[in-house]
Design a protein that fits this description.
This protein has 143 residues and is an alpha+beta fold. It contains 5 helices and 4 strands, in the order αααααββββ. Helix 2 packs antiparallel against helix 3.
């Protein structure tokens, strides 16, 4: 294959996807869940799980290639709203791992009472006035 043929293949794919919805969080979730179920069905032979796997993969690709962008966007928003608590739980864990006691200098993590922004404050500074970088709300805390 020459360079021009590769470029035309890439260009053809880009042209094909023009005006289509593409991959979003719901499609990614469906595909990854289907892969996990497929791995499980390798060990546990349940025909229903194989059918569920194929249905999930087909539905994910129908969403990806769909031209009904507004409907797909609304479906993704409902999915994100429904899974907000789970995603927040894991985001908090990642945040604590990144900025918690594993860092070189110990920190306190406070939440702004007004906007909920997390603020990292070094320990051992006594009572200090903390200003939220997002909404500029000020509050006193012991560091």
């Amino acid at each position: 294959m020459t360079m021009n043929q590769k470029m035309t293949l890439k260009q053809r794919m880009l042209n094909f996807m023009q005006g289509r919805y593409g991959v979003d969080q719901l499609s990614g979730f469906l595909i990854w869940t289907a892969v996990i179920i497929a791995v499980i069905t390798m060990f546990v032979r349940v025909p229903v799980l194989q059918i569920v796997t194929w249905v999930m993969i087909i539905y994910a690709y129908v969403r990806i290639f769909s031209k009904q962008i507004n409907k797909r966007y609304a479906q993704n928003q409902k999915f994100l709203d429904a899974t907000w608590g789970i995603r927040k739980f894991f985001a908090d864990i990642r945040y604590r791992i990144k900025y918690g006691k594993q860092t070189a200098e110990p920190y306190h993590i406070y939440k702004c009472r007004k906007c909920g922004q997390k603020i990292r404050v070094p320990k051992g500074k006594g009572k200090i006035m903390i200003t939220c970088p997002k909404c500029k709300y000020q509050f006193k805390k012991k560091s």
